[in-house]
Amino acid sequence: MCGIVAYIGEREACPIVLEGIKRLDYRGYDSAGIAVVRDGRLVIRRSVGRISALEEKLDHELEGATLGMAHTRWATHGGVTEPNAHPHTDRSGKLAIVHNGIIENYRALKAFLAQAGLTFESQTDTEILAKLIGYFYEGKLEDAVRKALREVRGTFGIAALHADEPGTIVAARRGSPLIVGIGDGEYVVASDAAAIVQHTSQVIYLSDNEVAIVTRDGFRTTTLDAAPVSKDIEEVEYTLRQLELGGHQHFMAKEIFEQPESLRNCMRGRLDLEAGRVVLGGLTSVSRELIKTKRIILTACGTAWHAGLVGEYLIEQLARVPCETEYASEFRYRNPIIEDGTTVLAISQSGETIDTLAALREGRERGALALGIVNSVGSTIARETDAGVYLHVGPEIGVASTKAFTGQLTVLAMIAAFLGRRRHLSHEECFQYLSGLAAIPDAVEKALQLDSATRQIAAEFVDANNWLYLGRGLQYPVALEGALKLKEISYIHAEGLPAAEMKHGPIALISEDMPVVVLAPRDHWYEKVLGNINEVRSRGGRVIAIASEGDHEIADLAEHVLYVPDVTELLQPLVTVIPLQMLAYHAAVLRGCDVDKPRNLAKAVTVE
Ligand code: F6R
To answer: Is 446 a catalytic residue?
Structure first.
């Protein structure tokens, strides 16, 4: 999604904001731009493509400016062209804004401005906002920004500068994240803490409909009606080191290999084995209500939705609470029935996915207890929930989610045990299950030894353009996740299916050209899955099985077997997904794809 970085202080602004947008480039973008105020003049450069193309356009005119901002654009309104890249300006050419979000009523605003005689150079909604702020400008940028934003429907995170006010950045948000980093005599405004952490760890998070007026001497925050708002200064949780590759070729590889450690961090201080219980501080304030809940709706998108499907299973098995998993984008628009005692639990790595956020709001407005499982501390979803649990797996930079997925599974496993223990699980049952959970990081470590085996398989099937992933029960969501990983980073078409559904149509696809990955750990669906493998084999299909260590029977049926350690049955998805992540990674590398920045994808989807 679009990235925003703005700087005001005593240092040269240009390198700081450029470095900032480079830190955000993992979020995905297609063009970039920069604006600085120098000697009472606004200087703007924009370009299509990579930030390096923008850098080639930078010249001495930007040098010496200590106020500036930069932007990476992910196109929504209007194609990927230089005129559509941000920053956009007002009619005077003295005011510039960068924006993340969508101005929904931009057509009406455009008609209004056109009637006032304004003309437009781009096809973007952002230019309309820039012109509207300019229309209201009467010598005070903050007033003009507030006035214009009161007219806007839609979402925005913006930063605005004016050449006549060289000591001010005005920033505002509704729906799109914005953070103000507080340094020593300097401030960095950004859409993501990754652009701030090399300068300071002290931040304020703007809430919806808040405006920050940032100068070299300090900052103030107000509502859109200019009422003062006081903000708490918070500490950013992660460090610069976590944002670097650390010897790996790609962030995705780094994050796959980090999983034993990230899962230990996720569980740290939360498993009380002796007492046979789980301690989730984030849920303390709502625990009474949660224990009595009659129904849980898990809502999420993409990989997080797959985690929800596993979570549904765990919660129903351990806590015996009816639970369902809903695509957030569907749930929010389908007039859902929320009865008394319903809990809506949003799952999101970024905490900014607009559909997940809207689904959470929908649930809460209809009276549900609103909970979240989020990785990004201080993100919008985390702030809007009644309570929740952080993953604590560290920042995830690779666009393809890996360690966040296993973190989400782990938190869901802990919530299932938390509820189960308080409803009917015995001490002994909970102790057994939690001991199994505590053993998972070591099992994941072992599963990571499949790296070279998965590379060989990926190489053997590198030219296959269609893959099928099959699983049953708990392994069905893992099949979906394996297929999603493959398609999003290697652009190979892949489908995940409940193995028994194959007979109802997809079996027609089976041929020696289509590798079929079958999840077949030793669980209570195992015999059935062997039957499905036979069905594939007898039609000439080529099977890659993910099986439990020591299972020799399966070696006679499948062409390739990737053995993962045997773990508690309910927790098997945490290990069976590991070879699938590596398979997708190697396939993408072998096909020469940009693993960390796959085409058309963004790390946080903050538009519908
Ligand atoms: C896939 C992937 C996406 C996200 C989805 C939700 O690898 O990363 O499918 O899982 O966009 O994102 P979050 O979890 O940030 O809400």
So the answer is: no
Q: For residue 491, report the distance from its CA to the centre of ligand 1, in Å.
A: 17
Ligand 1, atom 11: closest residue by C-alpha: 302
**Distance separating alpha carbons of residues 156 and 297, to the nearest angstrom:** 28
Single out the residue of 489, 450, 448 nearest to residue 467, CA to CA: 489
* Ligand 1 mean position, distance from CA 305 (Å): 8
Judge whether 304 and 408 are in contact, CB under 8 Å: yes
CA–CA gap between residue 325 and residue 306 (Å, rounded): 9
Domains defined for the chain, CATH in brackets: 3-236 (3.60.20.10), 246-438 (3.40.50.10490), 449-590 (3.40.50.10490)
Residue 605 pLDDT > 80, yes or no?
no
Active site residue 603: yes
Give the residue, out of 26, 27, 256, 301, with the most ligand 1 atoms within 8 A of its beta carbon, to mutate for a pocket test. 301
- Closest-CA residue, ligand 1 atom 9, reads 302
- What is the pLDDT, as a whole number, of residue 82? 94
| Pair of tokens at residue 582 | 């590596």
- Given a contact cutoff of 8 angstroms between Cβ atoms, the answer to whether 219 and 178 are in contact is no
Distance CA 110, CA 98 (A): 18
- Strands, sheet with 95-100, edge to edge from the N-terminal-most edge strand: 88-89, 95-100, 156-162, 169-174, 210-215, 218-223
Cα distances (Å, whole numbers) of residue 134 to 86, 96, 151: 16, 9, 13
**Residue range 159-217, pLDDT digits in tens:** 999 999 999 999 999 988 899 999 999 999 999 888 999 999 999 999 999 999 999 99
Using a 6 Å CB cutoff, which residues line ligand 1?
A: 301-304, 348-350, 353, 356, 400-401, 484, 488, 604-605
| Contact yes or no for 517/546 (Cβ under 8 A) | yes
Largest CA distance in the chain: 79
> CA 133, 137, 140: angle at the middle one, nearest 5?
115
Atom of ligand 1 nearest to the CA of 376: 15
What is the rounded distance in angstroms from the CA atom of residue 590 to the CA atom of residue 600? Answer: 20
Angle at 409 between CA 408 and CA 411, to 5 degrees: 65
470: nearest Cα among 458, 459, 482: 482
Q: What is the pLDDT of residues 582-594, one digit of tens each?
A: 999 999 999 999 9
Expressed in angstroms and rounded, the spacing between residue 232 Cα and the centre of ligand 1 is 29
C-alpha radius of gyration, the chain, whole number: 25
Among 471, 403, 472, 465, smallest CA distance to 440 is for: 403
Neighbours of 357 (CB within 10 A): 23
Cα–ligand 1 centroid distance for 245 (angstroms):
21
Mutate to test the pocket of ligand 1, among 303, 332, 354, 408 (most ligand atoms within 8 A of CB): 303
Which of 401, 480, 484, 585 has most ligand 1 atoms within 8 Å of CB, for mutation? 401
pLDDT, the chain, mean: 95
Rounded mean pLDDT of 439-446? 98
